[in-house]
Design a protein that fits this description.
With about 80 residues, the protein is mostly helical. Helices cover about 60% and strands about 0% of the residues.
């Protein structure tokens, strides 16, 4: 799983080097915030209000994943049975 995150996050191969047909898929992944977006901000490829947009995009992914985690935890607790004392 870590290898998939490394590839989709741009840690092994920078995301702009992927083929054009993969770019739309990569642009919607939450993993690009790990390496690709910070590097592009540092290098000046993303500047100004684009930075705010990218940060809002990452915060949206955080909210989605937290809500999914809360939902899964509640679902698991409903099915939980504890035996013993």
């Amino acid at each position: 799983m870590a290898g998939v995150v490394w590839v989709l996050g741009g840690m092994i191969i920078p995301l702009p080097l992927f083929p054009d047909w993969v770019q739309p898929f990569l642009s919607w992944q939450p993993f690009r915030g790990l390496c690709d977006i910070p590097f592009r901000i540092y290098s000046g490829d993303i500047a100004g209000f684009e930075i705010v947009g990218e940060l809002v995009f990452q915060l949206a992914w955080v909210a989605i994943l937290v809500l999914a985690g809360v939902w899964l935890m509640r679902r698991a607790q409903v099915k939980l049975t504890v035996q013993g004392g």
